[in-house]
Write a structure and sequence with these properties.
By secondary structure, the protein is an alpha/beta fold. The chain has two domains: 33 residues; 125 residues, 3-Layer(aba) Sandwich (Rossmann fold). It is built from six helices and seven strands. The strands form two sheets. A five-stranded parallel beta sheet has the order 5-2-1-6-7, with helices on both faces. It has a two-stranded antiparallel sheet with strand order 3-4. Helix 2 links the parallel strand 1 and strand 2. Helix 2 packs across helix 3. The chain starts with a helix and ends in a 13-residue tail after the last helix. The C terminus is likely disordered.
Length: 207
């Protein structure tokens, strides 16, 4: 009897291990090499998800080349130190200043949500009536692409939304890239367990 139970437990552990291994391979493959969206000729809005200031300059180029009407900027509630003044600057203001310096009119830039995570950002996008049934282009990073698409499907707003994934700049080290991939992998695992896991694990900043 004890032998049967032991064999059953070992078999179960082996089965779960194989499933987890296959899941890990599938997930890492999609993080590293996500399915690319076919970028269209025009969009109603370009959306910038917070996390990388370089997204603003890319979004500005997309705004003009895709004849967009508005740019939506995540209204992230965190701040960063301003080394010129010594004070703190809201993250969304960094994006605003970058867009303004790229000749985007302020009236065409809309802040949305009160966000501290990618989950928050996509959830708040879902609430914006003006973009429903419109073509939307989201600018994000390459290794962020897969998780963003997961969240778009989770909130049922994936239709008419394309993702423009930015490749890492040449000055980004291999170590930094590997950290980004691993971080995305664990955030996806946490999403499967908790959905909005920021409510469970507050120290992790979901970017």
């Amino acid at each position: 009897m004890i032998l049967r139970v032991t064999l059953f437990v070992l078999s179960a552990i082996g089965f779960v291990s194989i499933i987890f291994l296959l899941f890990s391979i599938f997930t890492l493959k999609n993080i590293i090499n996500p399915n690319k969206d076919l970028i269209k000729n025009n969009y109603y809005a370009v959306v910038i998800l917070s996390g990388n200031p370089d997204r603003a300059s890319v979004a500005a180029k997309m705004y003009f080349s895709k004849n967009a009407e508005v740019i939506l900027v995540s209204n992230e509630d965190s701040t960063v130190k301003n080394y010129h003044t010594g004070g703190l600057t809201p993250v969304h203001k960094i994006y605003l200043n970058s867009l303004l310096s790229n000749n985007i009119k302020r009236e065409n830039i809309l802040l949305f949500g009160n966000n501290r995570s990618t989950y928050d950002e996509v959830r708040e996008l879902q609430k914006i009536k003006a973009i429903k049934n419109r073509k939307i282009l989201i600018v994000t990073d390459k290794y962020h692409h897969y998780r963003v698409r997961m969240l778009l499907k989770h909130f049922d707003i994936s239709q008419n939304v394309d993702l423009y994934p930015m490749s890492p700049s040449l000055d980004v080290s291999d170590k930094k890239i590997m950290q980004s991939i691993i971080l995305e992998y664990f955030k996806i695992i946490l999403f499967y367990f908790f959905d909005d896991y920021d409510n469970f694990i507050s120290p992790i900043h979901d970017r």
